[in-house]
């Protein structure tokens, strides 16, 4: 299954090309990506291009740390939302325009979340980003970034599923009813339950009352529900899903 | 303690009394205290909202609270006598 990247996302991620090139002039204020693409020179490993070198050189350890830095920003964006100051600091450190960093990080967040969501394989991941025209080294770094962060991103994404009210706690009380408006001289045991529920940070409580035999029936039903997990039918399905 | 306030603001529609039920019980044990002997009164008020929808509102009182509750009604009855 391939990722589908929109034109805007391709443009955002295209900014990462700046990380894989050498010999860019350091003018970060022109346009969205700084210097127009025409003056970028793709340098070989360790070779600086003409003019003042700017940005990390292809094949150097700083490409690894640059991708790592942007990857960290991308995951932070997912965890906590936009952090413009962190992007500006990264832009200064990497010698790229701040806007380029911001758009690149947004594109990277999309790439990482969609890949994690779909549990995309290596082949499909590489095929999907092939259209961006990155170097092999950058492609490998991006795939590693995806693998390293996949578990945490999936954990965050799992919290976005719709939720019903969930169990928080339970209080119970055993009472004996002695009289009512309609009937005197009684000895009726009852169980009063206060069920505390949570839903998206809202707390609610329901008070219920029942007699001991209904409570026993309820307990038996719940035990039966749990017991279903141990039947061959459920065991087979769970085994096949793992 | 009452569920309808005697305030005629539109945010709090005046519910009207339909019926009252009560029962008296003794709490014997709970998840926080295993040995109790705590009598209480449960009151259920049947009320109707302005549209006619009927709901039950239930609440519990300790014996002292109930005695106070009862005293309010005795006072109301006494005042009505003088009107």
From TrEMBL, chain A:
Every COMM domain range: 166-233
Comp. bias regions, Gly residues: 34-49
CDD domains hit by this protein: Commd2 (cd04750)
Stretches the record annotates as Disordered: 29-55
PROSITE patterns in UniProt: COMM
Top-level taxonomy: Eukaryota, Metazoa, Chordata, Craniata, Vertebrata
A Pfam family reported for this protein in Swiss-Prot or TrEMBL: COMM_domain
Species: Strix occidentalis caurina
Name under which the protein is recorded: COMM domain containing 2
TrEMBL record, chain B:
Alphabetized InterPro entries for the sequence: COMM (IPR017920), COMMD4/6/7/8 (IPR047155)
Function of the protein: Scaffold protein in the commander complex that is essential for endosomal recycling of transmembrane cargos; the commander complex is composed of the CCC subcomplex and the retriever subcomplex. May modulate activity of cullin-RING E3 ubiquitin ligase (CRL) complexes. Down-regulates activation of NF-kappa-B. Inhibits TNF-induced NFKB1 activation.
Origin superkingdom: Eukaryota
UniProt-recorded name of the protein: COMM domain-containing protein 6
Pfam families (alphabetical): COMM_domain (PF07258)
Location of the COMM domain: 16-83
Protein family: Belongs to the COMM domain-containing protein 6 family.
Molecular function in Gene Ontology: NF-kappaB binding
